[in-house]
Structure to design on (175 residues):
């Protein structure tokens, strides 16, 4: 079984590989990392833009590689009624069927969100605040703000597992 992941970021690739291997019960899945363009800003600032980025990445994967499964994860931020937060959208396609899901919100300090509204990316802001290097390819803001009780990868794996429910029980999701 071939799975194409719309990113070369090791956190996203590993999250997709781990979650899909469990859900699909596939120990020998071939996982291909592909630098799929999101066609949205490097730091998506709304739910809609973040969702669009994930969907666009999957569409690019479908055009670029023949495979059984396509998956993309797009991290973004938004300012909600309870304050700014980061989250991710997951898009998964197996050819004819699609499923799009979302991770939980991680609250962000207002000072971090302000930096993002000025054009910075979340990983860069968190690296500066916590004196880390390239945290977006490691535990992410999630790891830093939860004292590593959760990580970017663990949250992505859960979001992927939840998004796969539509495929696990596709008969229940037919209109």
């Amino acid at each position: 079984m071939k799975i194409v992941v719309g990113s070369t970021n090791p956190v996203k690739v590993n999250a997709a590989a781990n979650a899909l291997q469990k859900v699909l019960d596939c120990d020998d899945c071939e996982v291909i990392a592909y630098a799929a363009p999101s066609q949205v800003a490097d730091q998506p600032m709304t739910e809609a833009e973040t969702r669009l980025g994930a969907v666009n990445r999957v569409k690019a994967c479908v055009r670029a590689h023949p495979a059984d499964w396509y998956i993309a994860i797009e991290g973004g931020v938004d300012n909600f009624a309870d304050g700014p937060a980061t989250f991710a959208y997951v898009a998964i396609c197996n050819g004819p069927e699609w499923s799009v899901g979302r991770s939980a919100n991680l609250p962000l300090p207002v000072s971090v969100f302000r930096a993002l509204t000025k054009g910075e990316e979340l990983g860069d802001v968190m690296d500066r605040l916590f004196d880390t290097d390239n945290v977006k390819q490691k535990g992410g803001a999630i790891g830093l703000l939860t004292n590593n009780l959760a990580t970017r990868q663990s949250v992505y794996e859960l979001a992927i597992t939840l998004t796969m429910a539509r495929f696990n029980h596709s008969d229940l999701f037919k209109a």
User: Anything to note?
Assistant: Helices lie at 10-23, 47-64, 110-117, 122-130, 140-145, 152-163, 165-168, 170-173.
